[in-house]
Amino acid sequence: MQTLANVIRMPTPLVVRGAASAGVLEVLRKGEELFAEGDAADWFYKVMTGAIRTSKLLSDGRRQIGAFHLAGEIFGLEAGEVHRFTAEALAGATVLAFRRTCLELSAHDSEALREEVLASAIRSLDRAQEHMLLLGRKTAQEKVAAFLLDMADRMLDGEGPFELPMSRSDIADYLGLTIETVSRTLSQFTRDSLIRLPAASRWIELCNLHALRQLNVS
Amino acid sequence: MQTLANVIRMPTPLVVRGAASAGVLEVLRKGEELFAEGDAADWFYKVMTGAIRTSKLLSDGRRQIGAFHLAGEIFGLEAGEVHRFTAEALAGATVLAFRRTCLELSAHDSEALREEVLASAIRSLDRAQEHMLLLGRKTAQEKVAAFLLDMADRMLDGEGPFELPMSRSDIADYLGLTIETVSRTLSQFTRDSLIRLPAASRWIELCNLHALRQLNVS
DNA sequence: CGCAACTTTGAGAAGAGTCAAGACTGGTGG
DNA sequence: CCACCAGTCTTGACTCTTCTCAAAGTTGCG
Question: Which residues of A125-153 are buried (b: 16+ CB within 10 A; e: fewer)?
Answer without folding.
Answer: bbbbbbbbbbbbbbebbbbbbbbbbbbbe
